[in-house]
Amino acid sequence: MSDDDSKQAYWRSISRLSLAMTLTLAGIMIIFPFFIPGLNSYRFLRFPLGYFILAHGAVILLAILIYGFFGGQQRADRVHNMTIQF
């Protein structure tokens, strides 16, 4: 495999990883608000439950997705033997 082929394979894997993470976040942020009105009838710490879950869940979800992206990036780096050279 030539160097250009290796770089293209690496870029494809990173592009797929980015697309998967973006679609996951977008899907959850688009689908979850449909359930908020039903959850708002319950309270948690004097906040409507739907609001509370969306406000805190979005931050937690983003942290999980960033951690997952970092792990996927590290895995792709190992598979395609990409190292940082200064």
The percent range for strand residues is under 5%
H and E order = HHEEH
Spatial order of the strands forming the largest sheet? 1-2
Number of helices: 3
**What does the overall shape look like?**
elongated
Question: What is the domain tally?
Answer: 1
Rg from alpha-carbon coordinates: 19 Å
Low-confidence stretches: none
Distance between the termini: 24 Å
Give the helix/strand class: mainly alpha
The percentage helix is over 70%
Please state the average pLDDT score. 86
Largest sheet: 2 strands, antiparallel
Q: How many beta-strand segments?
A: 2
Account of the protein in words:
The chain has 86 residues and is mainly alpha-helical. The chain has one domain (3-79). It is 74% helix and 5% strand. Strand 1 (43-44) and strand 2 (47-48) form a beta hairpin. The longest helix has 31 residues, at 49-79. The chain is elongated and about 60 Å long. The mean pLDDT is 86.
Which helices and strands appear, and what pairs or packs with what?
Elements: H1 3-31, H2 36-39, E1 43-44, E2 47-48, H3 49-79
Antiparallel strand pairs: 1-2
